[in-house]
Design brief:
Strand content: under 5%
Radius of gyration: 23 Å
Number of helices: 24
Mean pLDDT: 81
Low-confidence stretches: 1-11
């Protein structure tokens, strides 16, 4: 992050005007995005416009000689996520094209829809700890189309999946981009992260899922939707083994990404690129061997045409817009202000979690990592409040709270996480519907998880746990 003057500590009229303008522009753009279904204009339109104007304001008024370098770094970081998103969405679309999800759907058993919701929430929770929450949501929401015919019912189930996927990514070192950041920089360790956040994360799913089941009638699970006669589902009936093979290869390719990263220390998008290339070669051979009908379009070059580019462009616009706020110093100033004003790690992280439902959690966590470096026991002795400073040590309470709050807090708004954005794009979930029906549920899980962290800390302090 570039070092920028701050409205909080200098009297710089131009800079303060720039900061004010950027905040107003972001809020305005955010309102337009939230009003997508009222304006009947795709949300990606506003995200891209907002992104361009924010960077233009920063370039014009920021007086930053390294602005071009800052933007290049921000664009590079964003493009890594975009490439990963394109690769993951293509792999998932390929599995769907070959009927792989039909195989999974037929093996999910539940006596009624309430139990079905519990099963899907648990599967999403566990799967997102291995994959990322975005890929998990894509897989799970695509499955819903075969299981539920009513769109509004699918919205409710998809929203629970978003909550479960975000919570599942919070307790695993490879479950979310922010946990990977903290883990790789030694702010948290894998075993301590799992030990301290597994139960709170599970609680943050169980509470809203229980409430959501009250809105679902305990009626029997309906028969699988056979009206969708896409060739992939027909293929799974006639070439069952081929569908299972592609399903296994697709899931294995996604699972191999964190392994590839651990072995090579290359960024995750390189693992996705390699996996996509291998699947491309594999499908070319399969299409030739089985002499599949050309209408199936079972090659990667044909599958990629069907991924949702508007969602990708929206993600690009949002990430770059938030990067402009980060580069201008707004987020780091905010983190510093929170520390000086509250001086309490629970309050600071609760607020960060709420903010993560409005803006991407990645720059928020990055700003916190810049503002609060890892504290050592030796260094804490020379601080004004040594006991408070030790909360920022490796695997300290602050970092576990930050991991939980930044990941789980994004569920409170549909555009607060990559999982929510993807679900919104696939199922066309209205922004205001999510606020009316889901935000309170997500908040209940978020607060319940924080309470459980506090309770576990209390037990640990008294050597009970």
């Amino acid at each position: 992050m570039a070092d920028s003057p701050s409205c909080f500590n200098i009297n710089d009229t131009l800079y303060c005007s720039m900061i004010t303008s950027m905040i107003i522009l972001f809020v305005t753009g955010y309102i337009c995005i939230a009003s997508e279904h009222i304006l009947n204009i795709n949300k990606a339109t506003f995200a891209l416009i907002m992104c361009g104007i924010l960077w233009a304001v920063y370039a014009t008024c920021g007086n930053d000689p390294d602005m071009s370098a800052d933007m290049t770094v921000a664009l590079g970081d964003t493009c890594e996520i975009i490439v990963f998103l394109i690769g993951a969405m293509t792999i998932v679309e390929l599995i769907d094209r070959y009927g792989g999800f039909n195989i999974i759907v037929r093996n999910i058993k539940a006596k009624n829809k309430r139990r079905l919701m519990w099963v899907l929430a648990l599967v999403a929770f566990m799967l997102s700890a291995i994959l990322d929450n975005m890929t998990t949501t894509i897989i799970m929401v695509m499955m819903l189309r075969r299981m539920l015919s009513d769109q509004k019912e699918r919205w409710l189930f998809a929203s629970v999946i978003v909550i479960a996927a975000n919570s599942g990514g919070a307790w695993s070192p490879i479950g979310d981009i922010t946990t990977i950041m903290l883990w790789m920089k030694n702010y948290v360790s894998s075993l301590d992260l799992i030990e301290n956040l597994l139960i709170p994360s599970l609680i943050s799913v169980a509470v809203p899922t229980y409430i959501a089941t009250r809105f679902v009638k305990p009626e029997p699970v309906e028969a699988l939707n056979e009206s969708d006669r896409r060739v992939g589902y027909v293929l799974s009936d006639h070439h069952h083994r081929l569908s299972v093979f592609i399903l296994c290869c697709g899931i294995a390719s996604l699972l191999s990404v964190p392994v590839f990263k651990a072995l090579t220390h290359l960024p995750p998008y390189m693992g996705v690129i390699l996996s996509l290339g291998v699947l491309w070669l594999l499908t070319e051979l399969i299409v030739r061997h089985y002499e599949l009908d050309g209408k199936m379009e079972g090659r990667i070059s044909q599958v990629v045409k069907n991924i949702d580019m508007s969602t990708i462009l929206f993600f690009l616009g949002i990430l770059m817009a938030v990067a402009a706020l980060s580069q201008s110093g707004i987020l780091s100033d905010l983190a510093g202000w929170l520390n000086e004003t509250f001086h309490e790690v629970y309050i600071i992280n609760v607020i960060i979690g709420i903010l993560s439902s409005f803006v991407d959690n990645v720059p928020l966590v990055a700003a916190c990592m810049d503002m609060y470096p890892v504290m050592t026991e030796t260094a804490s002795v020379f601080t004004a409040d040594p006991s408070y400073s030790m909360l920022f040590a490796e695997d300290g309470l602050f970092w576990h709270l930050l991991t939980f709050c930044a990941g789980v807090g994004g569920s409170m708004l549909i555009i607060g996480s990559a999982a929510g954005v993807v679900a919104m794009g696939i199922e066309k979930i209205p922004f205001m519907w999510y606020i009316r029906r889901i935000s309170a549920l997500a908040l209940s899980g978020y607060l319940s998880g924080i309470v459980s962290i506090a309770f576990m800390e209390l037990l640990e302090n008294y050597h009970i746990f």
